[in-house]
Amino acid sequence: MLGCQHPSDRIEMRTEMGTMIFRLSEGAPLHKANFLSELENGTWAHVSFNRMVPNFVIQAGCPDREDGTIDAAHWIDGEFADSLTHRFGALGMGRDANPEKRSANCQFYIVTHPEGVHRLDGDYTVFGQLLEGHEVLRRINEAVVEDSIGVLSLQIALR
Questions:
Q1: Rounded distance, CA 60 to CA 94, Å?
Q2: pLDDT at residue 8 in the model
Q3: Domain 11-158, CATH 2.40.100.10 — does that match?
């Protein structure tokens, strides 16, 4: 259902550490439509950040397979734009090591490095940006750095 249209371009992510508001970008229309479709379908009804790397990213979505690939229902062609970069609070879509740089439909991440992770630009699609809750994302990153955080559950809703 990649043609899903929804009037909202904002989503809310609630965690035990606080709430963050993101704006989805028109610059990555396939990824935006996919994210909204997966949200409507309940893909992330019960999800946690399953990968948290200090000063890099926190990631959630479909579980990875033991062989290191992503168990995605479908793949999305990469959408890259100079205006969509991996700065602090960027919302991007995960992928495995495919040469086409196609994204998985279900793995997404948030950049937590204060200066961004620009080495990912042009390789992974950014499709949204943190608008509100910067202090929440900083607290999450600090907890990951201090290794004082376990599983961080997540609830996602349209804003």
A1: 9
A2: 75
A3: yes
